[in-house]
């Protein structure tokens, strides 16, 4: 994902410093054991051989070295955790912003293939995995490469044959072992990720619709399905763990085998007078310590497979093309804000039934138009087309003299307010939800629109009034109350156009009349398009149009 590497430039120095510190910590760890072997063996030999030998062995140098490496290891590890993880967290932040910026223009049409839970999973855990590629994959492999060279070079300064043995052992564990488990790891990670995203998507849907499952007495069946899916996921994870354990076990065997070979070579060199006795444990302990940098590599290989897969999934999610508004902007709409449809045809992607079939309609600014038609005929789809969420298959759609396909949703949002059927209450207070539409609205304006939406009495009946918490965790509004809140929100925006999708559904006749009268009084000069099945609403409109078989017909004509 090319954009990711550009993004990481902002945190690149942190990542580089993290790598530097990780290498320092690993070298210090190696140095600590390397010198400890020398110090312990030298001190022991000096103790056995008496005072003369004790004087001959310079204990100060290795002792100082041991202290230095011990301190350096602690400090470097501490700083590495801070710097590298800070860098990785910043990377996650950049990545999430990057992904969000690419996903947002695709909504809603470009994201219909993804279930909500799956999309959330991609946005949260896939971005995590991709950003963790640095700490979990790049850092361990690069540290092993850099430190492997350093360790072999240090060994070569003491005993070349031991350096060769160490190099062979490190290459086997650092290259051959991860490469050998690579293919199987990729496959198992793929299987696990597929199951995981399936479970995530289903879990989100189940939790959202828990009530329905209980009403249908399907909750226990659902739980049984979960158990099956979870055990399949556990099976895939177990296999991955077993593979990683096998690779680690192999590395441990090679580590001890290398240490044994180094011991034999060092003993030979001692006998040949090329090494002192104290240097034998130094090399053996050094060899054992050197393998610390390759031991995490099987796990890093697993993280690499997960990270690459996550990057692919993110790429796929972001790769969709926005369905509408793809042409370059040629100007903003200007008054009069008339909407003109000329021979517009439209079918939702992947469907064969035309919602609009060479349909033509003109709605003049200031007009109050009732749009009627059988359920599912395509009335609400007009909003999707107007806002460019979907592009017509043919024909032309102009708003305020500008082709709608050249407008962005945010350009239109300043001119058209929509009280939609599938209105969503965000978790927050009633006031928060209203202010979402007009953040600068005054108290007087809020109470004005609540009045028009026939909600004043309801809000006054709440102990906390507009401060009442609503949304998922708060007070649930009835269908009619929620719809009126949507109307209040739309009214608050004071735009030249107001689109009302079934505004009076679920209301009794008296409230319906009062609501429509208040809207008309307040929006006498506003263009109103009211999609409705309720005939009682139609007398409030200047004109009524019926949508049928993909075309618009004057009602009664
Ligand atoms: N996102 C979508 N993807 C595919 N098909 C869709 C989508 N949204 C709506 N449809 C289909 O398009 C047709 C028109 O739907 P629309 O919601 O516009 O009808 P409507 O006239 O507003 O219905 P109602 O009066 O019941 O609200 C329906 O057959 C519906 O199933």
From TrEMBL:
Source superkingdom: Bacteria
Record keywords, A-Z: ATP-binding, Membrane, Nucleotide-binding, Transmembrane, Transmembrane helix
Organism: Acetobacter ghanensis
Membrane topology designation: Multi-pass membrane protein
Keyword Aminoacyl-tRNA synthetase in record: no
Transmembrane domains' residue ranges: 144-177, 246-266
Record SMART domains: AAA
Pfam families xref list: ABC_membrane, ABC_tran
Keyword Glycosyltransferase: no
Compartments (UniProt record): Cell membrane
Name of the protein this chain belongs to: Thiol reductant ABC exporter subunit CydC
Gene3D superfamilies (alphabetical): ABC transporter type 1, transmembrane domain, P-loop containing nucleotide triphosphate hydrolases
Domain ABC transporter positions: 339-557
Residue ranges constituting the ABC transmembrane type-1 domain according to the UniProt record: 16-280
NCBIfam families: CydC
InterPro entries, per the entry: AAA+_ATPase, ABC1_TM_dom, ABC1_TM_sf, ABC_CydC/D, ABC_transporter-like_ATP-bd, ABC_transporter-like_CS, P-loop_NTPase, Type_1_exporter
